[in-house]
Specification:
The complex is a heterodimer of chains A (490) and B (533). Chain A has 14 helices and 23 strands. With 490 residues, chain A is α/β, with parallel strands linked by helices. Chain A has 3 domains: 2-70 and 204-295, Rossmann fold (3-Layer(aba) Sandwich); 79-201, no CATH class; 309-475, 3-Layer(aba) Sandwich (Rossmann fold). In chain A, the strands form 3 sheets. A 10-stranded antiparallel sheet of chain A has the order 4-5-6-7-8-9-10-11-12-13, covered by helices on one side. A 7-stranded parallel sheet of chain A has the order 3-2-1-14-15-16-17. In chain A, a hairpin with a 2-residue loop joins strand 11 and strand 12. In chain A, helix 7 (329-340) packs parallel to helix 8 (357-370), helix 7 (329-340) crosses helix 12 (444-456) and helix 12 crosses helix 13. Chain B has 533 residues and is of the alpha/beta class. Chain B folds into 3 domains: 7-65 and 200-301, Glycogen Phosphorylase B (Rossmann fold, 3-Layer(aba) Sandwich); 76-197, Histone H3 K4-specific methyltransferase SET7/9 N-terminal domain (Single Sheet); 309-489, Rossmann fold (3-Layer(aba) Sandwich). In chain B, the strands form 4 sheets. Chain B has a 10-stranded antiparallel sheet, with helices on one face. Chain B has a 6-stranded parallel sheet with strand order 19-18-17-20-21-22, sandwiched between helices. In chain B, helix 5 (263-270) links the parallel strand 14 and strand 15. At the A-B interface, strand 7, strand 8, strand 9, strand 10 and strand 11 of A face strand 10, strand 11 and strand 12 of B.
Chain lengths: 490, 533
């Protein structure tokens, strides 16, 4: 058994989760049993894994495990059919599709927040006292059972969480109290787990216990994918290897080693080795650590094909990935402005989510200033077939990211035969792309010139498309799996 | 059903015995959470199936077999703990290997059964106190806020399912107030209530459903009005609701026709006609209720005391075999009992009959820093009666005490019945009482089984004692009559009076049901699933 470990599966996943999930699927497709393991509590976990192309048999969530809910078939809980709301006593009002109110003689005693992207299914239910203060919130699992209750301190902060099995037995309690004046979870207590209680100060300590319970049943290789969980590893007693997969550069933009990695690199955390996406990074890192550093791709493409120019002569520039400050999205706007000097109908489309409201405002302002208002769009975060369509509808992919683990978005685009123009950065792009596809960081004019050539010279575009799909060859499933097998992980 | 019961609980127990003996089904319904209920019930004649405590009911713990939980049975989820016992505080302190306090375990003195545990997290915060039921399970968990107040409380079933929760508001003065209740039923229904009264109404509705019968109504008899008076009238379905007056309805019992009402009954009497029946323990109170309120509801008189036939037929103890001059009173040492006046009456009578002694039995009422007891003690000191008047605690050896006494004294300002007086007379004691409403002046017939003197006139009571103790033949005659007249409270006589009420309830039932079903056309129970799915 292999355990690929990260925090969570999200509604909007980042490259780390896509990489971890694709590798999980790949291993399993070769009969190499592997679980996508997550630590965090997420009532919609079993839906989010679908967006990662995983099924219930390929995943293991810590809370699911303790809640005896790793294998539960789905039974939809429509709020109007829920036994929890006695309709002899309460009136249910649904002012909008996202929320319903439970009223007793005119007073709102509870609010049902509909599970996102469903029609009237129980998401969570918040209960209120007569002063309209929240007293409790029940969370409903995607599969249709009441999964947990959060209680609240009188000041409105979470005080206690109880987690249930699908039949309602309490199996875990999390207490939230003060540590040096700050409210935080201070205890994770397993109730009657295999006949005994266990308590832990942190979620990571609970996770270590959880992994040891797994390894007792099924020993296996561990690959941790998130630095936030590094300290869970030393306590895990494994007879096999424990690896850390680094999904990014190990340095910041100033070239300094990331502080989160210092202990790991020192060899203090009982790891067997570190894996990175590129040989280049491997070579740079190996002198910095006593641990063996290995290299194997983080990206697996499902196909590699050449697109026909006729399908996509749109003059559309695509920027793919999370919109965040460190990814320098404003660079793409300056480049677009420059492109438009030669190709007036060039447009730019961002695809990816953002949690940075301020950044989006700044981008809007810049778009206004540059006079790009009608030529820049922000599209929804999409995956799967919808993402394929977005990639195939663009004429070039632009990547202005200043530092990479591998540049997954480039490889994904190339596998569809979409030419890519990217900053020449560590790590990734300069290993699988050629010089004419790379431009120095911050050189807007050069990037714009390359794009203009592709837009104006059909022959050049077609050659670039063929080259891209050839370069993506390195990341097909068979090729990547072989590279992973060659690592000979313990 | 605390160990030291007041007259109301005694009356309920006697009624339970009476109903049980006559094959009439009943439940004693209790509202307050009490982790010692089932331990205390062992000292009564009640069986566990005859009692429904509201919290037990929701906790699915009406009948649970006893399990002794000691500190050895506790699992704190921490390996390698050790403990230190603090014998004086009846507790253990539990530490981990780093000497960090994990828990305090408070135990009851018998077998060191766990009473509660105070739990600390890994950062030294007290986060939870678990209260154990005497039957050996965590009944109530109190969850603490970071500033060390109880934020919320959860009640569990013996298996650990959370069934009821209460949420506190911290007021600006720091006081804590329950402002919300959440109930999770065994089928998973979730109810929100603002007050414990609303919870009570829901509970009574469930009982009314559970014991519903087409043939006869559920009869709810409200013995402590404040527990359900505001909600019983709002039951979903009909029932036969009875207010039982255990005390004077007027604040000044000697003026029942006017003035402020007894706080306990004020709301109920302002709404007297929502009851199907109101029961008084004496005919006199019933008549006073009728003339003051002119209610349309039915009025009954049913004594709260019952004397078993076996006791009425037992061997009588002649006066000569008792301690001469012994006067007793069995009553709480509470302000309205005015037992200091009984001390003064005895002091007065001893001027003529120096053999008179006084024994006072009953627990101390803490009102006004034990004012009543302090008044008794100063009356003893003022009259130098330290060796004559003996103060006892509450006794459960009532018969022995009364069989050795000759006179039973009552100096109360207010009564509902006075079970103790009734029982004393059934043991052949002679009664002397102030002319006080209600009970004493009905139980005692002037000159036959005792004497009634004016309220607060302890000298007259002293004269009555002198009169009794100076004439041995009269004394025996009064005692004989006490025994005889006690047949008024035989179980047969009292049962006959209950039957009048039970018959009325049954008679009214078809009408009540017809009204209800007329209004609702169909009983909607279950119809929601059919029509809305």
């Amino acid at each position: 058994m292999n355990y690929f470990i990260s925090e969570n599966a999200f509604e909007f996943n980042s490259g780390t989760e896509f990489s971890q999930a694709a590798r999980t699927s790949m291993y399993n497709s070769f009969g190499n049993l592997t679980l996508f393991v997550t630590r965090n509590y997420t009532p919609v976990f079993h839906r989010t894994i679908k967006t990662l192309g995983l099924n219930d048999h390929q995943v293991l969530n810590m809370y699911d495990f303790f809640q005896e809910a790793t294998r539960v078939s789905r039974a939809k809980q429509n709020l109007r059919e829920s036994v929890t709301i006695p309709k002899k006593r309460y009136v249910i009002e649904s002012p909008n599709p996202d929320q319903s109110l439970i009223l007793n003689e005119g007073r709102t005693v509870a609010k049902v927040n509909v599970m996102p992207a469903t029609v009237a299914l129980m998401g969570n239910v918040e209960y209120f006292d007569r002063f309209d203060h929240i007293v409790a919130r029940d969370e409903w699992d995607y599969r249709g059972f009441k999964s947990s209750t959060a209680y609240f301190h009188p000041n409105g902060e979470v005080s206690l969480q109880k987690f249930y099995t699908p039949v309602g037995k309490v199996v875990l309690e999390i207490t939230h109290m003060n540590v040096q004046g700050h409210l935080m979870p201070t205890m994770y207590k397993l109730i009657n787990y295999c006949g005994a209680n266990y308590r832990f100060n942190t979620e990571n300590e609970l996770f270590t216990f959880f992994m040891n319970e797994q390894l007792k049943q099924n020993p296996g290789t561990i690959i941790l994918e998130r630095a936030s969980m590094l300290n869970t590893i030393p306590g895990i007693k494994s007879t096999k290897g424990k690896y850390f997969y680094l999904h990014s550069s190990h340095t910041n933009l100033k070239g300094q080693l990331l502080t989160t990695l210092v202990e790991l690199m020192r060899g203090a955390l009982d790891f067997t080795g570190i894996i990175v996406a590129t040989k280049q990074q491997q070579q740079d890192m190996q002198p910095l650590t006593t641990l063996p550093v290995l290299a194997a791709p983080d990206t697996i493409v499902k196909e590699n094909k050449t697109n026909l120019l006729a399908n996509c002569k749109s003059h559309k520039i695509l920027v793919l990935g999370r919109i965040a400050k460190e990814k320098q999205p404003q660079d793409a706007l300056y480049i677009l402005k420059s492109v438009q000097a030669s190709v007036a109908d060039a447009t730019l489309e961002f695809r990816g989510y953002s949690t940075d409201r301020q950044l989006l405002n700044e981008l809007d302002l810049l778009i206004e200033q540059l006079g790009l208002k009608n030529t820049v769009t922000f599209g929804n975060y999409v995956v799967g077939k919808m993402l394929d369509d977005v990639i195939e509808g663009a004429q070039v992919l632009l990547s202005t990211v200043p530092t990479e683990g591998n540049g997954m978005q480039n490889i994904e685009a190339m596998s569809h035969g979409l030419p890519v123009i990217a900053y020449n950065v560590n790590y990734g792009p300069n290993t699988y792309m050629s010089n004419e596809q790379l431009v120095p960081i911050g050189n807007y004019d050069q990037a714009a010139n390359r794009i203009v050539s592709l837009f104006q010279d059909d022959k050049q575009w077609q050659e670039a498309s063929i080259l891209a799909s050839q370069q993506a060859q390195l990341f097909t499933k068979d090729s990547v799996y072989k590279q992973w097998q060659d690592l000979n992980l313990q | 059903m605390q160990p030291q019961k007041s007259g109301i609980e005694h009356a309920q127990l006697k009624r339970a015995d009476l109903f049980r003996a006559h094959g009439e089904q009943f439940k004693i319904v209790l509202r307050e959470w009490d982790p010692l209920l089932h331990e205390n019930m062992k000292a009564t004649s009640l069986k566990s199936f005859e009692v429904i405590n509201m919290f037990d009911y929701f906790q699915e713990a009406t009948e649970v077999s006893d399990q002794t939980i000691t500190v050895d049975n506790l699992d704190f989820g921490v390996a390698n703990t050790h403990r230190v016992e603090e014998l004086k505080k009846n507790r253990y302190l539990i530490y981990d290997i780093n000497q960090q306090l994990i828990a305090r375990v408070n135990y009851r003195t018998d077998q060191k059964q766990v009473a509660s545990t105070e739990l600390f997290d890994g950062f030294g915060n007290l986060y939870c106190v678990n209260m154990y039921d005497s039957r050996g399970f965590v009944s109530l968990s109190q969850w603490y806020t970071p500033d060390n107040k109880i934020g919320s409380e959860t009640w569990q079933s013996p298996e650990g399912r959370t069934v009821l929760e209460a949420f506190n508001k911290i007021n600006s003065d720091g006081s804590v107030e329950k402002v919300c209740w959440r109930l999770i039923s065994r089928v998973g229904e979730i109810h929100i209530f603002d007050t414990l009264e609303q919870v009570t109404l829901h509970f009574l509705n469930l009982l009314n459903d559970e014991y519903w019968s087409k043939n006869e109504p559920n009869i709810f008899i409200l013995d402590r009005a404040h527990l359900a008076q505001t909600v019983l009238r709002y039951l979903d379905k009909p029932s036969y609701n009875v207010l039982f007056l255990h005390n004077s309805h007027a604040s000044d019992a000697s003026h029942p026709e006017k003035g402020i009402l007894n706080n306990n009954y004020e709301y109920s009497l302002f709404n007297i006609n929502v009851y199907d029946a109101v029961v008084s323990a004496t005919e006199r109170q019933k008549n006073d209720i009728r003339s003051r309120f002119k209610p349309t509801t039915k009025l009954f008189t049913i004594p709260v005391g019952v004397i078993p036939m076996k006791q009425l037929q037992q061997q009588r103890v002649p006066m000569a075999e008792r301690t001469f001059g012994k006067v007793v009173a069995l009553a709480r040492k509470a302000p309205e009992k005015q037992l200091d006046q009984l001390v003064k009456a005895v002091a007065y009578a001893r001027q003529q009959v120096p053999q008179i002694t006084l024994d006072l039995y009953g627990y101390k009422d803490p009102t006004n820093n034990f004012l009543a007891e302090r008044l008794i003690e100063s009356a003893i000191r003022e009259n130098n009666l330290e060796n004559i008047v003996t103060l006892h605690d509450y006794t459960d050896q009532v018969a022995l005490v009364e069989q050795d006494a000759q006179v039973f004294g009552v100096t109360s300002s207010m009564e509902g019945f006075n079970l103790s007086l009734m029982e004393a007379l059934a043991q052949g004691d002679i009664g002397v009482t102030y002319d006080v409403n209600y009970g004493p002046n009905a139980i005692i017939n002037e000159g036959k089984n005792g004497y009634i003197v004016p309220l607060n006139d302890y000298k007259s009571m002293g004269e009555a004692l002198i009169h009794i103790f100076k004439e041995p033949r009269l004394m025996q005659q009064l005692s004989d009559t006490s025994y005889e007249m006690s047949y008024r409270y035989s179980s047969d006589t009292v049962w006959a009076q209950w039957c009048l009420l039970l018959v009325d309830a049954k008679k009214m039932w078809p009408v009540k049901q017809a009204n209800y079903f007329h209004m609702t056309i169909n009983d909607l129970k279950g119809a929601d699933e059919e029509s809305e799915s």
